[in-house]
Amino acid sequence: MAMVTTGSDDAALPLAIPVLAGRQWGPGADLTSHDPDALAEYLDQADFQGELGQVVALPGARTVYLVGVGEEVDLEALRKAAGSLAAASKRAGRVSTTLHHLAVDGAEGAVAEGFVLGSYSFDRYRSDPGEAPPEPGLHLIADQGSAEAADLSVASAVANAVNRARDLVNTPASDKGPEAIAKSIQAFADRPDVRFEMWTGEEVIEAGFGGLAGVNAGSARPATMLRVTYRPDGATRKLAMVGKGIVFDSGGLTLKPYESMKSMKTDMAGAAAVLAAFEAIVELAIPIEVIAITPLTENLPSGTAVKPGDVLTARNGKTMEVLNTDAEGRLVLADGLSLAAESDPDLIVDLATLTGACVVALGRKIAGLFAPDDEAAQLVEAAAARAGERVWRLPLPEDYRPDLDSEVADMKNVAGHRYGGAIHAALFLKEFVGDRAWAHLDIAGPSWPEDTGFYQGKGASGFGVRTLVQIARDLAHAESSILSAHSE
């Protein structure tokens, strides 16, 4: 775990200085004896121009890293620059920096967050991981008004939560059963302001979670529904977060091809994000009541697996005809969203690696946002932008809803054609939130980006954690409930 500290310059540590596009040295140049003009040939050979994410090490008694921040510096540029520094300085261990001296509001937190995220690696299953590098750390050189403790505590808590979500998603499916994932957060149950509730095995059926029980029918490991609630003193708002938790998705009897199945240990990335965000919200004592709900199961084929044509009954009593067993995420979310709506929250947000159609539409760097309520959509969009996670709002046209009509049940789980798949999935979920304000994030693409660089290494991204924590912070301090139109 990377540590972030602040204080006066420590000459014993390597120094990292920001450089803007065109090799314009930023704050901190006075801390090194290097002459920029004398370095021109060296930097030419390194092809260093100060572009975002470029890092070059200068030789000398004190190692100096020049860190490119690009032309227009904002919070995300600082995160990316700090992440690139973390990767480049991995063998150095602790590094001092003046990156946060750039005139950007919130720079301290962004630099700390990017460095912690960029320091992440997942080596748990390597028999010989090689020589362990020094423990990473970032020392923010104090400047007037910089490196505020509040910014650093939030940044560290959020970044470490993202890394916990990454660990959970990167872990092989065999080592993270549904009940084990739920119990990973049980340590919070000892807190007087946290309530831990778990339904597993037959309890899932008895509680009316028919979608979850149906998807689980082919698995030897029992399903688990988790609800964990944080109720701090003085909270006046309530946020419900629901995360899809398919521990492994084979497609069920509608079996996936190998290429589509091999990465399906990641199909619980929504649940991982929700649980990690919950931990960060509690750690930061954000004054809002938060309910985290994760339906957890495998989706496997067997003689007892749910079959095309079967009808399942969700927690809210609606019936669902299963025509494609590989469209299982919406079936378990039907129960999770129904449970969330029962608590009468100001806002429900669900995260799910739900559809390949959303990846086709937006690629692997942007999540699809669906929300029937403009105010809820704007709140989520603003939180995501502040957090540095990209979302794009997609439509929820009501005239697409008849495509989900079933001849034998209230609805079917697929439209019957391949067009508008992400929209149809979102319209299906809308049936289970009642009249509550709700936003759905389809994170199938950005939860496992194929590109690496900046603060994203190989594997899971932990996408959604930062946005959820920012939503909680924004909603906690909102002057009025975004649900005013719904709560009358």
**What general form does the structure show?**
elongated
Number of helices: 14
- Percent in strands: 15-25%
Distance between the termini: 46 Å
Helicity, as a percent range: 25-40%
Largest sheet: 9 strands, mixed
Rg, please?
24 Å
Mean pLDDT: 94
Structural class: alpha/beta
Question: Could you give the count of β-strands?
Answer: 19
Low-confidence stretches: 484-488
Structure characterization notes:
The two termini are 46 Å apart. The protein has helices at residues 40-45, 75-88, 107-118, 149-170, 178-183, 202-206, 210-216, 258-261, 269-283, 329-342, 356-362, 374-387, 421-430, 465-476, and strands spanning 3-7, 15-20, 24-25, 55-58, 64-70, 94-97, 137-141, 194-200, 224-230, 238-243, 245-249, 289-299, 311-313, 319-321, 347-352, 367-370, 391-393, 411-412, 438-442. The chain has 488 residues and is an alpha/beta fold. It has 14 helices and 19 strands. Strands 8, 9, 10, 11, 12, 15, 16, 17 and 19 form a 9-stranded mixed beta sheet that branches. Strands 1, 2, 3, 4, 5, 6 and 7 form a 7-stranded mixed beta sheet that branches. The longest helix is centred in the N-terminal third of the chain and has 22 residues, at 149-170.
